[in-house]
Amino acid sequence: MLCSFTSCHTMMETGAFFRHCHAVCLFFVFSLALQYCQTSLWIMFLQEETIVNLHNLLQVLSRFSPGKEWFLGRSLHDDEPTIIHHYAFSEDPYSFAYPDFMAGWAISCPLAKRTAERVNYEPPKSDFTIDLQHEIALYIWEEGRGPTLTAVNEFCSELHGSSSAKCCATAVNTYLSACGKPVLKEDVFVAVKTCQRFHRDRVPIVKQTWEKDAASLEYYSDVTDSIIPTVHLGVPNTERGHCEKTFAILRRFASGAVTQAPWLLIVDDDTLISLPRLRRLLSCYDPTEAVSVGERYAYGLSRDGYSYITGGGGMVFSRVAVQNILAGGCSCRSSDAPDDMVLGMCLTTLGLPVTHSPLFHQARPDDYVKELLARQSPISFHKHWNIKPVAVYQRWLSEPDQRPQSHTDTREEL
């Protein structure tokens, strides 16, 4: 009756075959219908954190006729238009519901089969894939011709074993990503990309917030500033892209002249990040492998495109990954080419995985559903636009013993 398997976000972590999964997931997901719907009525998608009460789940599904098109899940809604959803439904963003992947979601086989056929002749229109939860719901909705998400209260994001999860068909086993002791401070080398224009506004925010948690950190700028201090790599500043600067950072790291750390973190000067949480996450990965981790976006995957780690949320590479990138002959077509996308093309060409973590964020907290952020221990956010960055850091990223005791303790410089 029921075919259940992990979603592409989870499957992608397990091997190189699924490294393109972000948008290609649409093709993969619905092609499964051709195989499994011959013996099943429903397809259920789960993440590795999702716990299933099979008895409760079958009771829930029995309420819906499997001969009709159904799209079931825990509903999420945007409170305001957001860049991560391409500003969809700008006049009324709350009107569109999309599924919470961690709570699981299900489609009936009639919907799966029809969508599988449609994918073959009408692939997703957008070149960029940012949030698969929202984009799959948009594709199924088909501008009003397909079904909208039906909210199922028993698909839950509460912790398994909690009193509130007793009647749930699904729950979550953990909100934290940790696999043992955090990696040592000294094992993470931090590279901050900046330029003279932002030495007096963005860099002080880094120093006021998260710099103290770095054992080894350098600021890379277009000028040498002994007060910060900065390192000038001989690369002129560009208004966007910064590809040559990033590759110069990779070469400096790989040389071993500055650090022998197994991990490299590259961030922008307007990235807010929790290094203690990053070190906990990195305990889940083997630095002797070619690991690249961060928030994964994708470009042109319906046309043999590629996945990439968004630079603003922070790009993390093992030393082995950096060595592979440089040895693979990857380069910038221009100094202002987008560094994160160039690295994504390179990793794809070399057959190296791009690993997604939902704890990294390319945008500001205001651009995400608060329900999702509330159950996370986020690692990063990006952009100082229209926010108070120190207050954002203290609320979302600082450890409990670092947070001010009252609002009067918080000073904001921007």
- Would you report the number of β strands? 22
Q: Count the domains.
A: 2
Structural class, from secondary structure content?
alpha/beta
Strand order across the biggest sheet?
A: 14-13-12-15-20-17-21
Q: Proportion of β residues?
A: 15-25%
Regions with little confidence, pLDDT below 50 for 5+ residues: 7-24, 406-414
Average pLDDT metric: 87
Radius of gyration: 22 Å
Please tell me the CATH architecture of the largest domain by its name: Alpha-Beta Complex
Helix content: 25-40%
Ends distance:
57 Å
Specify the CATH class of the largest domain: Alpha Beta
**Looking at CATH, which topology of the largest domain would you report?**
Spore Coat Polysaccharide Biosynthesis Protein SpsA, Chain A
The general outline is globular
Number of discrete helical segments? 12
- Main sheet characteristics: 7 strands, mixed
